[in-house]
Amino acid sequence: MNGNTAVALITFTDDRDDGISSPEVEQFLRKKQGKLKKFLESSGFIAIEPLEELRKDREGWYGIRNLEDVRNTVKILSGYSFEGIIIGAWTWAPPMIVMEFIRNIPKPVMYYTENDPLSGNLSQMSATCASLMEWGINNHALKHERCFGDRDYLLKWIRAVSAYSKIRESAMMLWGGSYAVKMEQLQDDIPRLKSFLIREVLFEDQYILINRAEKILKSENERINAFKNWLVKNKLKINYDKKMLTPGSFNKQIALLIAARDRLKDLEQENINGVSIKCQPEIYSEYGVNACTLPAFLPLAFNEYGKQKIYPTVCEGDIKGLLTSMMLFFLNGKVPPAFGDLISVEDDYIEFANCGAGSLYWAANSDDIGETMSNTEAVSNIHGISGAAFSYYGKEISAITVARLTRIRGKHYMQLGKG
Prior knowledge:
Layout: E1 6-11, H1 23-42, E2 46-48, H2 50-54, H3 67-77, E3 84-88, H4 95-104, E4 109-113, H5 121-135, H6 139-142, E5 145-148, H7 151-168, E6 171-175, H8 190-196, E7 200-204, H9 207-219, H10 221-233, E8 237-238, H11 247-266, E9 272-277, H12 282-287, H13 293-297, E10 302-303, E11 306-307, E12 313-315, H14 319-331, E13 341-345, E14 350-353, H15 369-374, E15 377-380, E16 388-391, E17 401-408, E18 411-418
Parallel strand pairs: 1-2, 1-3, 3-4, 4-5, 6-7, 6-9, 8-15, 9-12
Antiparallel strand pairs: 10-11, 13-14, 15-16, 17-18
Helix pairs in contact: 3-4, 4-5, 7-14, 9-11, 10-11
């Protein structure tokens, strides 16, 4: 995930010819920026350093020092894609020049420096950051971050900026819409969300999946058999019975999953990065099977044909739950997020579960197909007319994050815990 994340790395210098700038100071700036760039790249990120292109004369000026430099640097950066800006504060520079740069490139800003009492860097950092907040030309000026030598925090900020950038360009798909079984908290203010968090929220009726599933059942049985053979080969136990989990109901559930994958492929240009399926009551009652194959298998890195794109997936049009899942996934793209209902709370543990399925990754905390499937059982669902639930108990892991986006009187908050 880091390899796709790029940040711009710049610094500023004194604009006074008779001030504190000198060839030695400029070489000092170049050296400090070079070390920071090397650190970022060793941590798996792309560091774009436009001043290397602007200052081809390695013996002259290095830092940005006037409005012309700002315009030229902005022009260079316009040819790159990046998520945020890291400003190295290594010496005194006039705040106005920094402000002009941020006005022209409205991206998240991190002001970074390290302790050096002889450089004047803290004076520059405090003066500029105070100016940015007083000026407040854009949200990034008002809410810039500051980091005083804590490189671990710097990396966390980059990951967060990258996650925000990705979700801001994403769409989410709500098959069947939102607001199942009268759960008001599943809804949200869509125009408000699109103004600050996500690009688009798409709605489609479940009939699109049901209609396609019926066509697959009638004329593409080999695709259903390929999926079932993959499950059996990897030792997922299917506990058929005479009422709920029959071969016929299981085939319908698999056809729904294949239909969902096909539909997502049709909509690749929408950049959908999370989906919900509103199962209750339309699918599990009217269509006759529950849709648990979607939250079980869409958030996996593999399918019967090999690798696949991971889609964070929730049930019942839970907009806040899906947004939370997408944010967590963009922060840690190696782990498909799971979801569930709060079941019980004891002194030393909290229990979560779901009526039908969550990402099967958590059956073994692994992308190993054999481990995942051998720890999972398809069992009779407790809801609906027929169909399987995909049952497993999560394996012990050193640390997890539990989160939930919520909204109180129109304002969004993130509830967050570690365990």
